[in-house]
Amino acid sequence: MGLQPDSTSTGGAATSAQASAGTVQSVLVRAAGHYRWIVCTLLFFAATINYVDRQVLALLKQSLQSQIKWTEIEYGHLIFTFQLAYAIALLFAGKVMDWLGTRKGFSLSVLFWSIAAMAHALAHSVFGFGVARFALGLGELGNFPASIKAIAEWFPKKERALATGIFNSGTNIGAMITPPAVAWVTLNYGWRMAFIATGALGFLWLAAWLALYRVPEEHPRVSKAELD
Fold first, then answer.
1. What is the pLDDT of residue 218?
2. Could you list the residue range(s) of the whole structural domain that residue 73 is in?
3. Helical residues (DSSP H) of 60-190, grouped into ranges
4. What are 16-57's pLDDT values in tens digits?
């Protein structure tokens, strides 16, 4: 009589192999299942930089007032110019993000506002600051429509409010770190460098964004379970 394979041993080996495969798959899913929080981190830093750039002028008001010789009324016009551009951009920023997509639309927004922020360093008059301020308002508005769209793309419904709160907290961080940072740069390198240095932060963020961000359907590290 020939030897028959032990069905119990064979079944046990198969079960063990399946369990091992399941464990490996589970580990891989978990490893890939947190990439959305990297996206949220990028959005957090974008919000931080957004609020850094918009505050620099107000922090340098006294220094610039003595050099540019603007009046309080003229300074009020600069504030109005930014707010006007921001209000205008509200009308079409969301549509632009839907049209271009989050990756490209957010990239163009940050590029535009970073150039505008640095352009303040070239101003020698109230008019020059007004032009830079208007451009900054147009560019900065793209931050929130793009971030909200990215959250909708990457996060399941049950986590979207949490993710929105986290990235939006970057605005408060920006408001806290800008005064000491701008003061230090201005004291050591002058007010023009304060605009250049803070504006340059956007280019660093942009490099990280382009390297790391894709829509989930195109990203190799996202799993279906992450989005469910």
1. 76
2. 40-227
3. 61-68, 72-90, 93-100, 102-119, 126-140, 143-154, 160-168, 170-189
4. 444 444 443 443 334 446 889 999 999 999 999 999 999 999
Helices (H) and strands (E) in the chain, counts: 12, 0
**What is the rounded distance in angstroms from the CA atom of residue 201 to the CA atom of residue 53?**
9
Instruction: Please check whether residue 216 lies inside any domain of the structure.
Output: yes
Highest mean pLDDT of the ranges 1-10, 89-98, 104-113: 104-113
How many Å apart are CA 117 and CA 111, to the nearest integer? 10
* Mean pLDDT, the chain, whole residue set: 86
- Cβ-proximal residues to 61 (8 Å cutoff; 6+ apart), any chain: 75
Q: Is 160 inside any structural domain?
A: yes
Angle at the Cα of 58 (from 57 to 60), degrees rounded to 5?
Answer: 65
Mean pLDDT within 145-163? 94
- Indicate the pTM of the whole model: 0.81
Could you tell me which of 120, 111, 47, 115 has the C-alpha nearest to residue 78?
Answer: 120
Query: In one letter, which amino acid is 196?
Result: I
CATH number for position 222? 1.20.1250.20
The total number of structural domains in the chain stands at 1
